[in-house]
Design brief:
Bound molecules: ligand 87F
CATH class of the largest domain: Alpha Beta
CATH topology of the largest domain: BirA Bifunctional Protein, domain 2
Length: 476
């Protein structure tokens, strides 16, 4: 029997959030540090989550008509510099390949930080007439951005996995319809899979992607008191098509530049999920992204082992559709196993010992609220199904309540300042005035101008002019 105690989480989420987060992701074996600073290993349990998200989103976009493709990792310098405006500001983050062996390359090659330039080089060749449109491609790949701010696993890493969709249309109407449709899929990834409520809206001028006419995003607010952008969908207008001269002949024989969108969702989402749901005991997985939704832990002694194991195996078969784990390891105590699976966030644990067997029941433990109840063998399958659904809903509701409790609507500068100091999600009114000044003075930025606006405009708290409802907060 293992005698040493399982190394659980040693700090509380509310006491030291960043240390808590680091411990959760490493002790639950989601990710590990690598030898390269700012680059992490996605271990099987986080890679599984990514695969789940990928399958979900991939189905949605394919059904909508998008096709997957793959473009080169390396981008020649001349191509990279074609749309100056879009790389400006990002330049320090671009990593370059300059040598092979001991020989300098004639032209250095950027390791893609995003693929606009390499993809639009092909789009220019492929698009000739309105018959070639829409062109809607997506790629699942890795990107490298040499961040200098201190790295955070999943949230800010120098290499990450994502999907980037790049589409071209004959008119702005179709493009703008798609840019919203994709945003609604992102919302579904967060709300339906990760059980995380998000706010849909448009970015301010200062926060939008410089190459876009406008940027839409989904945003959420985390227990660290900071907000985070979950995913973005950009309406690029004709900015790139003009820079790359991607043009087509329309039905009446006239030439026009295409209308474009780009949109992306990354492994950052996994970090957001951990920060939102995990607790002082470790990871908490929403059932929809959990590889194993149930773990069975048998409790036996030498005398009754065979009987208990026989039943445990029978239960595993009965609950097969929940991808059940049966923890039959010999040299670990039941208590040790309980802690380990709690640390790893498995939504439901089923305990079965001699007393339970005699009563034809099991003990069912829920990871989300730590409640235990006895469930008879005959009802088990149905019960597990109901409980898993309830856990999924409960996590969403808990996150929703947390966000609600930490949101304040402010109408004066004094209340605004107070709310910034208290790390709140601030709902207020803003006319479009100096964003940099707001950031410098209060340390918060405009997260989004939500789609959901009140009927009547209100006074901007900074200028008194007419303004839109906006959300502001400190952010990642
Ligand atoms: C870093 C280095 C070079 C972000 C960068 O959001 C360029 C960039 O263009 C860069 N970091 N961006 C913006 C990416 C825009 C856009 N690309 C496609 C997305 C979604 C997917």
């Amino acid at each position: 029997m293992k005698k040493e105690k399982l190394q659980g989480i040693t700090v509380k989420k509310k006491d030291n959030f960043s240390e808590w987060y680091t411990q959760v992701i490493s002790k639950s074996e989601l990710a590990d540090y690598s030898i390269v600073s700012g680059c992490y290993v996605l271990r099987p349990s986080s890679y599984f989550i990514w695969e789940r998200v990928r399958d979900f989103f991939d189905k949605k976009i394919k059904k909508s008509g998008v096709k997957n493709a793959y473009f080169p990792l390396l981008i020649p310098e001349q191509l990279f510099n074609k749309e100056k405006q879009h790389v400006e500001g990002f330049n320090p983050e671009v990593a370059w390949v300059t040598k092979t062996g001991d020989t300098d390359l004639k032209e250095k090659l950027a390791i893609r930080p995003t693929s606009e330039t390499i993809m639009y080089y092909s789009y220019k060749k492929w698009i000739r007439s309105h018959n070639d449109l829409p062109l809607r491609l997506n790629q699942w790949c890795n990107v490298v951005r040499w961040e200098f701010k201190h790295p955070i696993p999943f949230l800010r890493s120098r290499e990450f996995l994502w999907q980037e969709g790049h589409t071209a249309f004959a008119n702005n109407k179709d493009a703008e319809k798609e840019v919203k449709e994709i945003l609604s899929y992102y919302k579904q990834v967060f709300e339906d899979l990760y059980a995380i409520p998000v706010i849909e809206g448009k970015k301010s001028e200062g926060e939008k992607f410089a190459g876009a006419d406008y940027t839409l995003s989904v945003e959420t607010f985390l227990p660290s008191g900071k907000a985070i952008q979950g995913a973005t969908s950009h309406f690029l207008g004709q900015n790139f098509s003009k820079a790359f001269d991607i043009n087509f002949t329309d039905k009446s024989g006239d030439k026009d530049h295409v209308w474009q969108n780009s949109w992306g969702l990354s492994t950052r989402t996994i970090g957001i999920m951990v920060m939102m749901h995990a607790d002082d005991y470790g990871l908490v997985l929403p059932p929809k992204v959990a590889e194993n939704k149930v773990v069975i832990v048998p409790i036996y002694s030498k005398e009754n082992k065979d009987k208990i194991m026989k039943k445990a195996i029978e239960l595993k078969t009965k609950l097969n559709k929940f991808d059940v784990l049966l923890d039959d390891r010999e040299n670990y105590s039941p208590g040790w196993k309980f802690h380990e699976w709690e640390l790893k966030g498995i939504p439901v644990r089923i305990e079965i010992g001699p007393k339970d067997l005699a009563k034809k029941q099991v003990v069912l433990f829920r990871r989300d609220n730590h409640k235990k109840e006895n469930v008879g063998f005959v009802n088990l399958q149905k019960k597990v199904e109901v409980v898993l659904e309830d856990i999924q809903n409960n996590l969403f509701k808990k996150a929703q309540d947390f966000i609600k409790k930490n949101t304040v609507e402010v109408k004066t500068l004094k209340d605004f300042e107070k709310a910034t100091k208290e790390n709140k999600l601030i709902k207020t009114y803003w006319c479009g005035c100096d964003e940099d000044k707001i950031k410098d003075e209060y340390g918060v930025k405009i997260l989004t101008i939500p789609f959901d606006q009140p009927k009547k405009k209100n006074k901007c708290i900074f200028t008194g002019k007419e303004g839109n409802l906006v959300y502001m907060a400190k952010s990642y």
